[in-house]
């Protein structure tokens, strides 16, 4: 259940999903019962809201439908939107799932990497058993390190460039604990996951800059005109396009332009690499 604070005669509306039910807590300590709530009971959330203390400064708005005085604060309770509409392709309805495995990565409907790190933790922990068993045979450190790199570290560092920067600290700390355990088994200090992710990210940055230069040199490329329009009139640098969301800001074009301008952008980079912005 969401809470929306409005002033004066402002109204909160939701265009997607089911039309919400809005109720206002008034200065007479009354709460209008929303449509559909025909059996009030102590367990009803709307009944519990009636018991809330009236502590907003300047008083609260009247019942649902009262505009109130201009500038007078009010509290609006918006009911649930209802289940989202199913996705359809043509006449076929797609089944909605919470998690999905694609190219070795676990994606979830919340667009975070908690499910992926959980699966990595389970898979790495199961392979740690073989590392400990190999250590019980008094194998030398070099062979243990080779086994760790090929069997254990390959699982932890798979596609770390994609999920390493967006994973939570709690998930990363769990994976770092596994690396410290493996370090005690192998008998030498192993590289932490953050170091591996940083080194691989640097390699990706070099590839992104090279890809941007190839796009600028290829007139037939679909993104050539887009990047050409971002050219600065004063210098040979590229201007960042405007974006409102972090997802758009982390896409290819803004990220490539940012890397190009910060590291090897400008006239000096163009003379060194022979790249032109014409």
Automatic annotation (TrEMBL):
One protein family per Pfam: ALKBH8_N
Region (Disordered): 60-82
KW Secreted (keyword) present: no
GO-annotated molecular function: 2-oxoglutarate-dependent dioxygenase activity; methyltransferase activity
Keywords assigned: Membrane, Transmembrane, Transmembrane helix
Alkylated DNA repair protein AlkB homologue 8 N-terminal domain residues: 113-153
Superkingdom, natural source: Eukaryota
Transmembrane segments: 143-166
Full protein name: Alkylated DNA repair protein AlkB homologue 8 N-terminal domain-containing protein
């Amino acid at each position: 259940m969401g809470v929306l604070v409005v002033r004066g005669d402002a109204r909160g509306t939701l265009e997607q999903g089911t039309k919400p039910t809005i109720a206002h807590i008034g200065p007479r300590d009354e709460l209008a019962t929303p449509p559909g709530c025909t059996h009030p009971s102590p367990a009803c959330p709307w009944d519990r809201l009636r018991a809330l203390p009236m502590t907003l400064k300047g008083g609260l708005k009247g019942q649902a439908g009262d505009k109130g005085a201009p500038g007078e604060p009010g509290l609006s309770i918006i009911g649930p939107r209802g289940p989202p509409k199913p996705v359809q392709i043509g006449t076929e309805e797609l089944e909605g799932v919470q998690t999905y495995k694609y190219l070795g990565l676990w994606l979830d409907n919340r667009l975070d990497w908690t499910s992926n790190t959980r699966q990595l933790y389970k898979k790495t922990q199961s392979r740690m058993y073989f590392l400990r068993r190999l250590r019980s045979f008094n194998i030398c450190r070099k062979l243990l390190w080779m086994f760790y790199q090929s069997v254990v570290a390959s699982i932890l560092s798979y596609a770390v460039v994609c999920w390493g920067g967006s994973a939570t600290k709690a998930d990363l700390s769990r994976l770092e604990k596994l690396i410290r355990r493996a370090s005690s088994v192998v008998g030498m200090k192993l590289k932490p996951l953050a170091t591996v992710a940083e080194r691989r990210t640097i390699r990706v940055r070099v590839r992104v800059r090279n890809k941007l230069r190839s796009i600028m040199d290829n007139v037939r490329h679909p993104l050539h005109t887009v990047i050409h329009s971002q050219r600065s009139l004063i210098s040979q640098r590229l201007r960042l396009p405007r974006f409102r969301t972090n997802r758009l800001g982390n896409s290819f074009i803004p990220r490539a332009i940012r890397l190009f301008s910060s590291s090897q952008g400008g006239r000096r980079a163009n003379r060194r690499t022979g790249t032109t912005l014409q």
